[in-house]
Design brief:
It is a single chain. The protein is mainly alpha-helical. It has 2 domains: 8-81, 434 Repressor (Amino-terminal Domain), CATH 1.10.260; 102-171, Arc Repressor Mutant, subunit A, CATH 1.10.10. It has helices spanning 9-16, 20-30, 35-42, 46-53, 60-70, 74-77, 109-118, 125-132, 136-147; strands at residues 152-158, 165-171. Helix 3 (35-42) crosses helix 5. The N and C termini lie far apart (55 Å). The model is unreliable at 1-6 and 94-104 (pLDDT under 50).
Length: 176
């Protein structure tokens, strides 16, 4: 197999595996490391470290340690979380845009993501943080942006993310 075809060690490993998580796991094993060792060193649960490796959960600390053990940058080790770089030579008017709010203001990407998550499925704050990747401290501002445009409801109910009865956030689907 021609090694020039692949951009990184992760790409080479992924060519032999089904998912990036499996590729990272096999690269770690080849370098004499394991998710168990990473979890023990960081004082984290193995299940949390495994979910981060599979790309189901975000954690800068765990992602950084896995990347360090792989000998890659975090953006190379976890390309599923990294946005493609913005070409400075392309004028901003030609770059892809998100939807616009009333008054022509741009709707932030994280507000659009949170809106999509809770539009038809009420969710608790914990599930919203995990599934959106938005930090807990940034969630209040994002929810304020959403509530300025749509009717945001906070009520007791079943979370569609984890299934527990708790306080959930929901949105009414706007009428046309």
């Amino acid at each position: 197999m021609n090694s020039k075809w692949f951009a990184t060690a992760l790409d080479q490993a992924q060519a032999r595996q089904r998912t990036r998580g499996e590729a990272r796991l096999n690269l770690l094993r080849a370098r004499g490391a394991s998710l168990t060792g990473i979890a023990r060193e960081l004082g984290k649960d193995l299940s949390t470290v495994s979910r981060v490796n599979r790309g189901e959960r975000r954690s800068g600390l765990i992602e950084g340690e896995i990347a360090r053990r792989l000998g890659l940058s975090a953006s190379e080790a976890f390309p599923e979380w990294c946005r493609p770089p913005v070409d400075p030579h392309v004028p901003p008017a030609r770059r892809r845009r998100s939807g616009r709010l009333r008054g022509g203001r741009r709707m932030p990407d994280r507000a659009a993501l949170i809106t999509a998550l809770i539009l038809d499925r009420p969710m608790c704050l914990d599930c919203l943080v995990v599934q959106s990747g938005v930090r807990t401290r940034d969630l209040d501002g994002t929810l304020a942006t959403v509530s300025g445009v749509l009717s945001l409801h906070l009520a007791a109910g079943r979370c569609r993310g984890c299934g527990t009865m708790t306080t959930v956030l929901s949105l009414d689907r706007p009428s046309r």
